[in-house]
């Protein structure tokens, strides 16, 4: 005879699984290093989604294609692209003010780090991220 409590425990476990957000459909280039590794120059601006790309738009109006660390991922928050960190923690969402540690690079290095870059995302400036801090 099976113990009736086993069925209850099985139902509770299935009901408690965490839901992972669906990946969004936008270009999300990544480099090979994890979050917290790399240069620490600072780029501040607003995280902007446009033309299927995620940009950081600085106060002077310049846009920089962001190349994210290897242990980050893309997600959606309120129907807008977002950046998730290890364990699916929210790092930055579209429209938030972001402070990105890292360094700027040229198109050739961006291509070597992140692979093929769609024409819509291939701007003149690229930012290789090492740290992320954001606020609404």
Description:
This protein has helices at 4-15, 107-114, and strands at 41-50, 53-57, 63-67, 73-77, 80-84, 90-93, 97-105, 126-135. A hairpin with a 2-residue loop joins strand 1 and strand 2. It is mainly beta. The relative contact order is 0.24. It has 2 helices and 8 strands; from the N terminus they run H-E-E-E-E-E-E-E-H-E. 15% of the residues lie in helices and 39% in strands. It has a 5-stranded mixed β-barrel.
What's the tally of helices? 2
H/E series, N to C? HEEEEEEEHE
Low-confidence parts, pLDDT < 50 over ≥5 residues?
A: 1-23
Helix content: 10-25%
Essential attributes:
136 residues; mainly beta; three-stranded antiparallel beta sheet; 2 helices; 8 strands; disordered N terminus
């Amino acid at each position: 005879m099976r113990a009736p409590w086993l069925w209850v425990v099985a139902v509770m476990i299935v009901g408690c699984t965490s839901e992972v957000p669906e990946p969004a459909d936008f270009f999300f280039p990544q480099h090979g290093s994890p979050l917290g590794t790399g240069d620490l120059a600072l780029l501040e601006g607003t995280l902007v989604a446009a033309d299927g790309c995620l940009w950081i738009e600085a106060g002077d109006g310049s846009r920089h294609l962001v190349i994210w660390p290897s242990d980050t991922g893309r997600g959606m928050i309120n129907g807008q692209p977002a950046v998730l960190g290890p364990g699916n923690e929210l790092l930055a969402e579209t429209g938030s003010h972001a402070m990105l540690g890292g360094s700027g690079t040229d198109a050739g290095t961006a291509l070597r780090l992140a692979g093929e870059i769609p024409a819509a995302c291939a701007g003149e400036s690229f930012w290789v991220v090492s740290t992320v801090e954001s606020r609404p």
